[in-house]
Amino acid sequence: SFSQNRITLDIAKARDTINKNIYGHFAEHLGHCIYDGIYVGADNQKIPNRNGIRLDIVEALKKLKTPVLRWPGGCFADTYHWKDAIGPREKRKAIENFTWGGVREDNSFGTHEFLELCEMINAEPYLAINMGSGTVQEAMEWVQYVNHPNGTSHLTDLRQQNGRSKPWNVKYWGIGNESWDCGGNMTAAYYVNEYKKYATLATSYNNSEGLYRIAVGPGTEDYSWTETVMREVPLKRLEGLSIHHYSVINWSAKGSATGFSEDEYFSTMEQAWRMERMVKKNSEVMDKYDPSKKVGLVVDEWGGWYEVEKGTNPAFLYQQNSMRDAMIAGLTLNIFNNHCDRVRMANLAQTVNVLQSVVLTKEEKLVLTPTYHVMEMYNVHQDALLLPLTISSSNYELNGKKIQAVSASASKDRNGAIHISLVNMDAGKAQEISIDLGSAAVKTVSGRILQSAQLQDHNSFENPEKVKPAEFRKAALKGKELSVNLPAFSVVVLELK
Ligand code: AHR
């Protein structure tokens, strides 16, 4: 059966650019994201690598047009001492990663390796400063070590000795992570005072280097935290405010990543839709203190979170990635695009082998997940002009509950091509959608779709291409009207020229 939906593009109101950083990623020292994921060891003869960094992952992340990568955490960041992980590898201090499973890490992947990875994939690095167990001095020295010109101090001398003479000029710096919980269990009032010390002393007094300093915001719908940060921190010391939101059904019963019911799927979609409200409500508070929208909302952790795969270390957060995750990604990215006046960056948690990954690895094998394909299909929106739209959508109803079934966003790229991304959350019904293109002069339509027979379908090491994009033919252009038949639980990106 079909339902009727209508979308109207308002091209005359187009004004904001979709910051490409909305398509960012997050890589933490957690499970096999870094070690035995991105980093396989510099003497690894079995898996092709450069200085230990896996080349097939580099290829995949480049193809995705990964714009920005956050590191080294997460909760891990608030225990991380960057000086333990520079210089000759054999002299680096091993640490216990007691945030994630108490495993030993030899620190062979450190600042140089991470920044080399970013150069290999053409992504901007985003470093998370240890506010929880570190010091202002340590943070200041990290900024100097990576950013200051040669000859300015023993820190830049040390950088040179360690093989890097040019500064990296890292722009994005997070100050603490989830400081209300794993980052130190602080109150908002306490956090802002700490934040101000870091934001003032790790840069020059007027931040003439132009660092983009990101403060910790809430990870729940606690808008009073946002209020405190926005009220107390002078705008000249703040460029970004981070929020986190995971689509988790229930923290004490998260359910399986692949063995889930339609009811669980529905709950996940409800949770994913909450992002819309969180973005709007945080923006409202920010508008009050920053009406010119100087400060960006940075959603630096988002994604689905389920029980770990059977037989894997519970602290490693390794989970499969199904069509359900593709739906989370399609919906969430549409939300970010539509709010790009305030949302300037987002980082999917996490890149490889952890939570909602884009890449899974097992020894020399690599799998691209359904989420990878959505991010790849959507990368046409990066740095494009947002075309505002209004949508009237039917509902997806299940067991007396309902959510909006269709989500959409649209943009126009530098060459004038229009892209519309559409998601049909409904697990049972296709959607007939008519799109009013308004003043757009359009002659042709083409598209790609991600769909599969079952919601639970995923890519495994045995069957790595079960879910992959295909050509989409169910869009027809009749003058200024586009009619689309969007299959149940599918993600489509249309290109209009
Ligand atoms: O992404 C996993 C963890 O989730 C991060 O370390 C933390 O910031 C959040 O609670």
TrEMBL record:
<feature type="domain" description="Alpha-L-arabinofuranosidase C-terminal">
    <location>
        <begin position="300"/>
        <end position="490"/>
    </location>
</feature>
<comment type="similarity">
    <text>Belongs to the glycosyl hydrolase 51 family.</text>
</comment>
<dbReference type="Pfam" id="PF22848">
    <property type="entry name" value="ASD1_dom"/>
</dbReference>
<keyword id="KW-0119">Carbohydrate metabolism</keyword>
<dbReference type="Pfam" id="PF06964">
    <property type="entry name" value="Alpha-L-AF_C"/>
</dbReference>
<protein>
    <recommendedName>
        <fullName>non-reducing end alpha-L-arabinofuranosidase</fullName>
        <ecNumber>3.2.1.55</ecNumber>
    </recommendedName>
</protein>
<dbReference type="InterPro" id="IPR017853">
    <property type="entry name" value="GH"/>
</dbReference>
<dbReference type="InterPro" id="IPR055235">
    <property type="entry name" value="ASD1_cat"/>
</dbReference>
<dbReference type="InterPro" id="IPR013780">
    <property type="entry name" value="Glyco_hydro_b"/>
</dbReference>
<dbReference type="GO" id="GO:0046373">
    <property type="term" value="P:L-arabinose metabolic process"/>
</dbReference>
<dbReference type="GO" id="GO:0046556">
    <property type="term" value="F:alpha-L-arabinofuranosidase activity"/>
</dbReference>
<keyword id="KW-0326">Glycosidase</keyword>
<dbReference type="InterPro" id="IPR010720">
    <property type="entry name" value="Alpha-L-AF_C"/>
</dbReference>
<dbReference type="GO" id="GO:0000272">
    <property type="term" value="P:polysaccharide catabolic process"/>
</dbReference>
<keyword id="KW-0378">Hydrolase</keyword>
<comment type="subunit">
    <text>Homohexamer; trimer of dimers.</text>
</comment>
